[in-house]
């Protein structure tokens, strides 16, 4: 279906910017949601994503509707999408169907957690470790709770042809989205998807895993309803709710890593921050004493101590 | 210096970090602003929708700023152009050893270091292209052309020349 519209139509959507400024800080004040400058930016991205030929973007305001542009969605659809954004607080990424993350564009939809910029750092941490460790680079890696497949694709590209990644998730919607994303980046031969809970689908490789990465749900249950509407109304609770303290699955991952990793194998887990990381370190030193070594906390770019990293103790 | 080492010297200050971030938050403020603490230089990138990409762009811009603004003093009495500078000079330069390899241009990542060393010389001779050319084994015209071939380099040299009351290169 060919959709051609006078170019002023999608750009009149941008003139909604004026109305957006009346929103000001309404969402920001109510639940720490987006302010008007962020909404304007999203609107611009929405229009950009809809226009097929991006070269017309530079001539936007000059031509005044004299030429027509090809759109991937009708102008009415655009208005409706934007209405959903403002009225229902539907996440921008679900509306455009994708998120730009690291150097990738990942498909996302309702039912799948939108990959966070903080999580980008995990891929860099993996790259650092394998650059000096041939053994881990050529090993089997696991991305637990893969969601959109972000981490699996990210580390799959680092490991190249000699490594392997198994990505697991409980949710079949997530697995179908991850499948799409890993194919989009040509990683079908490197990444295998398995459905199931955490380590359950990995019993056959127990003790042989070179590295485990995960961004498990880590928000305390009671905090979820207080989050910005985009997150608590639309993103899957399954990917966010970590139980009373938010740490249910983090503990579970630590317990599992102690036996699932091969000696010298690496784990990296994303957490809520300093408190959770410190609590986990205490746990590793007490209940899992002797299982791990070189355990460390790595901060994200906002200075929050977000990542717990460590290695399974070599057996003597 | 690796990207990582350079990042460690910087403060990334786009974060009006409200709250714990991570899973809690869906507000894509992908713009990145880096402040290089040792020098105070600031580089930013806002174009991309991914923070990671903007970080990479900002770092690249910072490297250019460092090359343009951080000067090392040069001993003109005993001057010998360093290898990184030799690599950006054209082959006809009389101080360029034959095993230097092909001349590298602005798109080569190593170009910045050469540009930085070239600016050190130009600053040491107070903006005189004729004087600098002598140290680099080139004619004045050849050095002029080299400088004019790169916008950042040209602007930095002309800024110096203007401040010394000289005419800008054209």
Largest interface chains and counts: A-B, 44 and 24 residues
Order of helices and strands of chain A, N to C?
Answer: EHHHHHEHHEEHHEHEHEEHHEHEE
Discrete helix count of chain B = 7
Shape of chain B: elongated
Number of strands of chain A: 11
Organism (chain A): Carya illinoinensis (Pecan)
Pfam family, one (chain A): MTS
Keywords (chain A): Methyltransferase, S-adenosyl-L-methionine, Transferase
Protein name (chain A): Methyltransferase small domain-containing protein
Description:
Chain B: It holds the Pfam family RF-1. Chain B: This is Prokaryotic-type class I peptide chain release factors domain-containing protein. Chain B: One of its GO terms (molecular function) is translation release factor activity. Chain A: This is Methyltransferase small domain-containing protein. Chain A: Keywords: Methyltransferase, S-adenosyl-L-methionine, Transferase. Chain A: One of its GO terms (molecular function) is protein methyltransferase activity. The complex is a heterodimer of chains A (316) and B (170). Chain A is an alpha/beta fold and 316 residues long. Helix content of chain A is 41%, strand content 20%. Chain A has 14 helices and 11 strands. In chain A, the strands form 3 sheets. In chain A, strands 7-6-5-8-9-11-10 form a 7-stranded mixed β-sheet, with helices on both faces. In chain A, β10 and β11 form a beta hairpin. In chain A, α1 packs antiparallel against α4. Chain A is globular and about 75 Å long. The mean pLDDT of chain A is 90. Chain B is mostly helical. In chain B, 42% of the residues lie in helices and 7% in strands. In chain B, strands 1-2-3 form a 3-stranded antiparallel β-sheet. In chain B, α5 crosses α6. The two termini of chain B are 33 Å apart. In chain B, 31% of the residues are buried. The model of chain B has no long low-confidence stretch (mean pLDDT 92).
């Amino acid at each position: 279906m060919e959709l051609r519209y006078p170019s002023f139509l999608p750009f009149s959507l941008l003139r909604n910017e004026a109305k957006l400024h009346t929103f000001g800080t309404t969402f920001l004040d109510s639940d720490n949601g987006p302010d008007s400058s962020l909404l304007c930016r999203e609107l611009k991205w929405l229009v950009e994503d809809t226009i097929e030929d991006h070269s017309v973007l530079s001539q936007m305001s000059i031509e005044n509707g004299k030429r027509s542009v090809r759109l991937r969605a009708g102008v009415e659809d655009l208005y409706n999408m934007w209405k959903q954004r403002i009225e229902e607080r539907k996440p921008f990424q679900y509306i455009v169907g994708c998120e730009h993350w690291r150097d990738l564009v990942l498909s996302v939809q309702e039912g799948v957690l939108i990959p966070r910029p903080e999580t980008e750092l995990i891929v860099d941490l993996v790259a650092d470790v394998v650059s000096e460790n041939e053994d881990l680079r050529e090993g089997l890696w696991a991305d637990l709770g893969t969601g959109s497949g972000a981490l699996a694709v990210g580390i799959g590209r680092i490991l190249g042809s000699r490594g392997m990644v198994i990505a697991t998730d409980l949710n079949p919607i997530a697995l179908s989205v991850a499948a799409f994303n890993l194919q989009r980046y040509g990683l079908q031969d490197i990444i295998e998807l398995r459905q199931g809970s955490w380590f359950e689908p990995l019993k056959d490789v127990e003790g042989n895993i070179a590295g485990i990465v995960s961004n498990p749900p880590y928000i305390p249950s009671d905090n979820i309803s207080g989050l910005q509407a985009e997150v608590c109304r639309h993103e899957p609770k399954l990917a966010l709710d970590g139980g009373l303290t938010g740490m249910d699955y983090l503990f579970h991952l630590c317990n599992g890593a102690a036996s699932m990793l091969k000696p010298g194998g690496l784990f990296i887990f994303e957490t809520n921050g300093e408190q959770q990381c410190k609590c986990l370190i205490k746990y590793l030193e007490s209940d899992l004493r002797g299982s791990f070594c070189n355990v460390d906390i790595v901060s994200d770019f906002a200075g929050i101590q977000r990542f717990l990293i460590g290695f399974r103790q070599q057996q003597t | 210096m690796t990207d990582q080492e350079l990042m460690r010297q910087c403060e990334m200050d786009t974060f009006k970090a409200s709250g714990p971030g991570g899973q809690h938050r869906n507000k894509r403020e992908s713009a990145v602003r880096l402040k290089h603490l040792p020098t105070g230089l600031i580089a930013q990138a806002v174009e991309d929708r991914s923070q990671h990409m903007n970080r990479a762009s900002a770092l690249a811009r910072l490297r250019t700023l460092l090359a343009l603004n951080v000067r090392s003093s040069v001993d003109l009495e005993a001057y010998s152009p360093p290898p990184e500078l030799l690599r950006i000079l054209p082959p006809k330069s009389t101080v360029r050893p034959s095993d230097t390899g092909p001349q590298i241009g602005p798109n080569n990542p190593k170009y910045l270091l050469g540009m930085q060393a070239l600016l050190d010389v130009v600053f040491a001779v107070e903006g005189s292209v004729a004087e600098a050319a002598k140290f680099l084994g080139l004619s004045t015209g050849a050095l002029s052309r080299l400088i004019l071939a790169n916008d950042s380099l040209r602007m930095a040299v002309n800024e110096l020349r203007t401040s010394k009351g000289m005419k800008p290169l054209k």
